[in-house]
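Can't paste images in this forum, so I'm doing it all in text. The chain is below; anyone willing to post the predicted structure tokens underneath?
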Amino acid sequence: MLKTILVALDGSEIAERVIQTLDHLVLSKDTIVIFCHVFHNPDSETELPADRPHPESPTLSYFHIEKQLQSYQQQLSVNSQLELVTGDPADEIIRLANIYKADLIIIGSRGLIGMKRIVLGSVSSQVVEEANCSVLVVKPNQN
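Text version of the structure:
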């Protein structure tokens, strides 16, 4: 039985597919779902390259993400919690899964291939490799 499920959402279009996947699971009334979002650490030298737009207000982004996660919470028939943290996404997802003793992590894959995957890395691959529990990776729609 799945007692604790950590659902990692990054605010991208894959988040809706992750939520749909969660809806397809049969959850007991004792299941707890932890919705988490990891904000990239602004001090990281690998983040915010000069050729990418920078968010104007991290506070606005925080409240937008928090409202989105709260809307997902309202759709659930089981208990849930929110975790909004800052750091390396894969490391923080794994850390939260360990703290909550998660039985399952649900995470989306951006479907990066080739050079993009090498340069940007794959959070889902790192989580699958390093997590102490099962990981369900939701892939983007393949049209």
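The chain has a mean pLDDT of 83. Strands lie at 4-8, 32-39, 79-86, 104-108, 134-138.
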